[in-house]
User: Which sequence fits this backbone?
């Protein structure tokens, strides 16, 4: 029991530090163009944008009915800009659907061994995309980006 509490405290500390770092980071200044040169937008305007899902997902990895490790994962979605408000208002339903996908992935052994291999991560992204499109709509979510992933424990 003491080890579980220690793991939870470490995860809370890491999560709190990450949240504080994200909140307190300085805003990046946009690059300035040299005189006479026009800057082109790198992202098409009005079409697609990124929606960073606030807060990380914490997924326990079970071994012999005990928590052997915890996966901490941060996601972002490539969305249709006109649907941004709909995605934001559906966030609890979206998080629930994605968390269930990650639980299923963990229970099927997806986070054991080389869990960051391309094929394993592609399967996870594909399942997360299906869940996101089911929760919000196929015309709202185009892809899922894994922005951070961390495994603690054995």
Assistant:
């Amino acid at each position: 029991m003491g080890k579980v509490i220690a793991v939870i405290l470490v995860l809370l500390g890491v999560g709190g530090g990450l949240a504080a770092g994200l909140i307190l980071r300085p805003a990046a200044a946009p690059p300035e163009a040299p005189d006479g040169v026009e800057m082109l937008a790198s992202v098409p305007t009005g079409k697609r944008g990124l929606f960073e899902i606030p807060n990380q997902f914490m997924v326990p990895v079970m071994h012999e009915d005990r928590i052997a490790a915890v996966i901490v994962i941060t996601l972002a979605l490539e969305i249709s800009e006109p649907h941004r408000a709909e995605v934001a208002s559906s966030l609890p339903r979206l998080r629930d659907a994605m968390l269930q996908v990650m639980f299923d992935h963990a229970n099927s052994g997806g986070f054991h061994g080389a869990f960051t291999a391309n094929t394993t991560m592609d399967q996870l992204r594909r399942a997360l995309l299906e869940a996101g499109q089911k929760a919000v709509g196929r015309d709202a979510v185009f892809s899922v980006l894994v922005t951070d992933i961390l495994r603690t424990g054995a």
Residues 36-45 have pLDDT under 50 and may be disordered.
